[in-house]
Design goal:
This protein is an alpha/beta fold and 156 residues long. It is built from 3 helices and 7 strands. The protein folds into 2 domains: 70 residues, Orthogonal Bundle (Helix Hairpins); 68 residues, Transcription elongation factor, GreA/GreB, C-terminal domain (Chitinase A, domain 3, Roll). The strands form 2 sheets. Strands 5-4-3-7-6 form a 5-stranded mixed β-sheet. Strands 1-2 form a two-stranded parallel sheet. One of its GO terms (molecular function) is translation elongation factor activity. Belongs to the GreA/GreB family.
């Protein structure tokens, strides 16, 4: 049996939306490819080849999204006591006072472009956070060396 993919409800909905967008892009890419094939006298045309490659990339992304979604298990609300999958965690650097908010999610949902930043539970930071509680101080390996953070809050 295929391995399940744990997703938050919001993550599942975001991936479903991406799938719908990719399907629309595939229709457009198919239309463009057909037009190029009909108007091209030379099948070695670079525009035609680029259109074929783009269509293949979109199809691969659709296959990937469909695979993830077919194996998805939506996790219930995270506990507010212990950091786990789905937890939104506010961290503070005790030296600088700088604060950072992250949500621990599965690798399929991870995205640094969102707020709060969604970090994978399989990443070094995600692994370090799991199981900690509000008030705990933890040490994380960063590209700039070890850094300590204090868990300010945990919410579901």
């Amino acid at each position: 049996m295929a391995r399940e993919v744990k997703l938050t409800k919001a993550g599942y909905e975001r991936l479903m939306q991406q799938l719908l967008q990719e399907r629309e892009r595939l229709q457009e890419a198919t239309r463009i490819l057909q037009e190029l094939m009909e108007s091209s006298d030379d099948y070695d045309d670079s525009g035609l080849e680029a259109a074929k490659q783009e269509k293949a990339r979109i199809e691969a992304r659709i296959d990937s999204l469909e695979d993830i979604l077919s194996r998805a298990v939506i996790i219930e609300g995270a506990t507010t006591e212990v950091i786990g999958l789905g937890s939104v965690v506010e961290l503070e650097d005790p030296v600088t006072g700088e604060r950072l908010e992250v949500q621990v999610v599965s690798p399929a949902e991870a995205s640094v472009l969102e707020t709060p930043m969604k970090i994978s539970d399989a990443s070094p930071m995600g692994k370090a956070l799991l199981g900690h509680r509000e008030g705990d101080v933890l040490s994380l390996d960063t590209p700039k060396g070890k850094k300590e953070f204090r868990v300010v809050s945990v919410r579901g």
